[in-house]
Design brief:
Blueprint: E1 2-11, E2 17-21, H1 22-28, E3 35-40, E4 43-53, E5 59-63, H2 64-70, E6 75-81, E7 85-86, E8 89-95, H3 102-115, E9 124-128, E10 134-143, E11 148-149, E12 155-158
Parallel strand pairs: 1-5, 2-4, 7-11, 8-12
Antiparallel strand pairs: 1-6, 2-5, 3-4, 3-6, 8-10, 9-10
């Protein structure tokens, strides 16, 4: 089941986090720590619920990395992810303003593992590189099932 929510803004944090209003949380059955899928006309992303707020009505606040992926419009579709699997393989695409070396890319992928964010096909998110620039990460495919967490054992193919 989806809920229509207003994108209320962002918080100057990273880690694919979401602050959800109490009415949206009650409608979807979302609890702290649950993963949610975020859809807008500009993209798909995901986040983990870190707080349920009473001061926001029918809205969602996002950390800046998830916000940039879905921020084209103020209306979001929010879906609770009831179960998240472990990915064995994932194919990702990377978009940057300037070339990125392998060590920096591995560091960014390790951040995705550390954030423990659920990913799925067409997932998009932004990660901040060491030089301060933002790198757009797009997940092209996840196997064997999705949504899934990336782990140290996940084979990642960069396309």
């Amino acid at each position: 089941m989806y809920a229509v929510a207003r994108l209320s803004g962002y918080v100057e944090e990273v880690g694919f986090r979401a602050w959800v209003s109490r009415d949206i949380a009650a409608a979807l059955g979302v609890r702290l720590g649950d993963g949610i899928r975020l859809e807008s006309k500009t993209g798909l992303s995901a986040a983990r619920v870190v707080e349920i707020r009473d001061d926001v009505k029918a809205g969602v606040l996002l950390s800046v990395d998830a916000y940039m992926a879905v921020s084209g419009f103020r209306t979001l579709l929010v879906k609770r992810l009831p179960r998240v699997y472990e990915a064995e393989e994932a194919a990702v695409g990377v978009e940057t303003a300037k070339p990125i070396d392998v060590e920096k890319l591995m560091h960014l992928l390790n951040l995705m593992v550390a954030y423990r964010v659920p990913v799925f096909s067409n997932f998009a998110g932004f990660l901040q590189a060491g030089d301060g620039g933002w790198v757009r990460l797009v997940v092209k495919a996840v196997s064997p099932r999705e949504p899934a967490y990336l782990s140290k054992e996940t084979r990642i193919h960069v396309r």
